[in-house]
Amino acid sequence: MTEASATLAGTTIGVVGTGMMGAAIAYTCARAGADVVVVARTPEGARRGRSYADRREERARQAGITNTAMSRALLDRITTTERPADLAPAALVIEAVPENVAVKQQVLRTIEAATEPCTVVASTTSTLPITTLSSTLARPESFVGMHFFSPVDRMMLVETIVGSRTSEATVAASLTYARLLGKRPIVVRDSRGFFTSRVMERYFDEALAAVGEGIDPGIIERAATAAGYPVPPLQLLDEITLTLNRAVQRENRIAVEVAGGTWRGQNAGSVRDRMIDECDRGGRSVGRGFYDYGTDGARLGLWPGLRDVFGPGQRIPIDDMRDRLLFVEVVEALRCLDEGVVGSEADADTGSVLGIGFPAHTGGVISFRRLYPGGAQGFTARAHELAARYGHRFFPPEQSP
Fold it and tell me: Whole domain around residue 263: which residue ranges?
């Protein structure tokens, strides 16, 4: 929070959208010294866009990390407005509205109309193809994906997504902005789910499938903790909400099937649907999900009814459950490498550790395979064991080394 981090002094950055993501991006840009223009649809949205920064700075002052003068200078760099025309001086504009193609395209056209041809326009989408979003833009070469991770002001990774018409100059500029914001960017090819979301969905789906098999939810969560994940999967699903996870997966399924592919998430989807539609348990935001919550929002423990809804119970070794969670992500990462979705093993490792919480002590998804006892051969042997017991999804791609 010090002025020493003011590497973007004199640069104007626009942020459109005042949800948690947009508000946190605006704050992060102001921390890096930029003048920030936050565009909201309503006065209430404008207040919400500013309140995040106010709260974060108040905590920083209380902790002695900053002082009143420095905090005031930072907050004064954030301007809220309901007028897209106020984005005109921005060198970079970041769109941070809900994950819906039509909504994003409308907002992006508005941004494009308000800004100069040299302005870099970026979307924070975590799953929607950049080429699709840019299809109605007049300047698709100036459009790029900048997928930030929550909480933005603490998470280091930015996934930079290159659309089919994104120019090299736009990619270079977005990487520079990410670094000036104190982030670690990786470059990924445009595809649904990109790299991090695609790999992380395997983690969620494996946990959901295990619940559907009747495996004790406590075993699932303990296995993830034993593996070194910072947050176990059922707890994390509650945090992001099952309803949001379902909406994203429904769009993914439609895209896969339209392209002639086979959707692999039926078992996970049936558990998610039953939790939402039959049990009315959508996650922490509604006070009930895989976990129970107190009136103050405190997590009380796993919902005992899970065993009744998804029983009869099945016992498996905790080592198997641990490896199911780990291996399913590694195998998906290997597919991403083979398909060119992620350009290097180093970016795959960086993205998995900094973006989606793959256990840091492993070095990342690709290092996990390389450092596994017995190396790649040992990994493949264990993957075949898991495939024989739990399904073909654990087979590594045939073309992987």
Answer: 195-401
